[in-house]
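Hello,

Our lab assistant flagged a job as stuck in the queue for most of the afternoon. It eventually completed. Since we weren't sure the result was trustworthy after the delay, we are filing this so someone can double-check. Below is the sequence as submitted and the structure that was eventually returned. Let us know if re-running is recommended.
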Amino acid sequence: DKVKPRYPGVTAARGGVESSEAQLSQAARQWWPTGQLTFALTGSPDVRCTDPVTGQPWTSPGGNEARALANCTNTSVVDLRSGEQVLPVHGVAFNLGINLVQPIYTFGKIEAAKRAANAGIDVARAQVDKDRADVTFNATRAYWMLKWARAAKATIDDGIEKLKKWVNKMNDDIDAGKTTFTENDVVRIKLALDTAELTALDVDKALDLGLSGVRTLTDEADADIDDSELDFVDVGEEPLDWFEDAARTHRPEARMLNAGMRASRAGRDLQLAQLMPDVGLALSFTYAYAQSVDNPENAFLNHPNALGAGLALVVRYNLDVPQRLANRNKAVADDRVAVA
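-- returned structure --
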């Protein structure tokens, strides 16, 4: 109960679920319009239409604004050498532009991306269960290793003491001339004593490993287990197919494999859809204003002061077909790997 919610591996796996859910949200939002907004602000030069009668800018004496704007085939050219028409700034100029593309049909690209993201969520959730099961297993192993090692140490220490007494007794009897024991008997008991002392070293190692495991997993330097005695527990008897079903169906690793296969299938479909074009609506809006620049009344001339919008049906297709074909082949191979 202590390690399940706090273990870093479980915490990281939960973060993986959040990341996968964000990827699903990202895939779903591909249906949203995309584009750009630009805004430019600068100073405005003094550029006026030429009056066709006077041959001078209409702001000159005798000029006519309406006549100049209606027949604006010539302007007072900005002279960068003198800078009089540029500096000091004669006004403000800005341009606002918005361009958006709303997807209408993508030949399954977005749907495949969403299926892959959903499969990724299932993989991430199974990863949480796997890491939780792993840390539970490690905690259980550390607990029973320590429990067994303490019980075994008491038993083996007692056995070593008795074996030492036997060795001393047998040596004393042989030195006294008694024929109850032989030298071979002493050798066998000494061999048993050496084996017990080697086993005691393994038990000491298990003690250190078990206690260190308990304290590492709980992240408490003084953590320890209860001191109840070991006892037998009836865990039941199940047939082989019960364990096979549990391994194939319920283990997180099996669920991760199934979800991974769905993700690879979605990836294969996505790469096929990438070979197709995208169909959408293109929307545009422009507003431009230059305070001291004339706006001619002619559709074929540049309009520094403008307000416009556009709507068009567009088909977009990238021409990197060889690269996309290679990606498709790789996705098909990856899918075969996942199935296998």
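-- support follow-up --
The delay was a queue issue, not a problem with the job. The result is valid. The CA atoms of residues 102 and 230 lie 69 Å apart. Residues 109-175 form the longest helix (67 residues).
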